[in-house]
Amino acid sequence: MAFNGRTNLCCTTLSYNIQTHTYIERVTTSIEFQFKKKLQNTCIRILCGYSFHPIQSILKTVILKVYLMYFAAKENPMVTTNPGDEIQKDIDAVGRIAIVPSLLEVICRTTRMGFAAIARVTDEKWIACSVRDEILFGLEPGGELVLETTICNEIRQHREPVLIDHVAKDEKFASHATPLMYGFQSYITVPIIRRNGSFFGTLCAIDQTPAKVNNTGTIGMFNLFAELISFHLNAIEELAFSEAKLKEEQRLAEVRDQFIAILGHDLRNPISAIMMSAELLAASKSEEQITSPSAL
Predict the structure, then answer these.
(1) Domain 83-214 has CATH 3.40.190.10
(2) Where are the domains of the chain?
(3) Contact status, residue 290 vs residue 2, Cβ threshold 8 Å
(4) 208: which residues sit within 8 A by CB, 6+ positions away?
(5) How many other CB atoms are found less than 10 A from the CB of residue 24?
(6) Rounded to whole angstroms, how far apart are CA atoms 280 and 268?
(7) What is the pLDDT of residues 198-240, one digit of tens each?
């Protein structure tokens, strides 16, 4: 009879072990594979081969608590940003391109124009990202022009270069409002297109005197420089993405470690108490079977 009692106890324990393992498997299904295995192994080690029905409710409470904590940290990492922050990031990105000052200097010397700039152009703003100003135009990085008063606003729509050797002799731009407002006579601008096809802005140059810019050599140089700027912007963006991804993975790794630590701590004490109670119950049951008339 004592042997049968121990056998029933072992069978009951094995049954609840299987049920508990199944429950852990169900709760951790959506967690990454490696993390899920780590969580399962930790829970199984804590159980130490003993599991009774009350553990089901304890596991449910503890695991769901840390489970929700983990995914709250994982699924809500994004911080909302305003467009002004994005514009400043673009200005900073252009500032990080070491060759930009040299490019603008080459443009001014090659075309004999006194002002060259890289502009970030959106549907609302024209903002200078980098400037070489030899004619005291008065614009610095971060400075803005009213979008509607610029020719770049038109380029944003048709994405084609604009070249003007002499405004006063140009049929299209002789009476255009922009040259009259800003007082330039020669002008060239080409669009800067990102790898994904989005419009970043323009590479442009102006001067108060006429200049010969409408030729294949100048157009080719501006297009090459615009492509080079786009290439560097893409590289900076990819690097920033990789750095952000690495920081996010490090943050999640810390959350995972906290998850495991909390899970182990919260489960160890109640399970130890249950184990001790189970052993006492098993021992008292064995003593009752030994002293009972049926055992004799």
Answers:
(1) no
(2) 2-76+246-291, 83-214
(3) yes
(4) 114, 135, 183, 184, 185
(5) 19
(6) 18
(7) 999 999 999 999 999 999 999 999 999 999 999 999 998 888 7
9 Cβ contact list (under 8 Å, min separation 6): 282, 285
* Average pLDDT score, the chain: 76
Beta-strand pair 162-164/186-193:
antiparallel
Distance CA 102, CA 30 (A): 52
The answer to whether 139 and 133 have CB atoms below 8 angstroms apart is: yes
pTM recorded for the entire structure: 0.59
What SS3 string covers the chain? CHHHHHHHHHHHHHHHHHHHHHHHHHHCCCCCHHHHHHHHHHHHHHHCCCCCCHHHHHHHHHHHHHHHHHHHHHHCCCCCCCHHHHHHHHHHHHHCCCCHHHHHHHHHHHHCCCEEEEEEECCCCEEEEEEEECCCCCCCCCCEECHHHCCHHHHHHHCCCEEECCHHHCCCCCCCHHHHHHCCCEEEEEEEECCCCCEEEEEEEEECCCCCCCCHHHHHHHHHHHHHHHHHHHHHHHHHHHHHHHHHHHHHHHHHHHHHHHHHHHHHHHHHHHHHHHHHHHHHHHHHHHHCCCCC
| CA distance linking residue 56 with residue 39, whole number of Å | 16
- What is the per-residue pLDDT for 192? 96
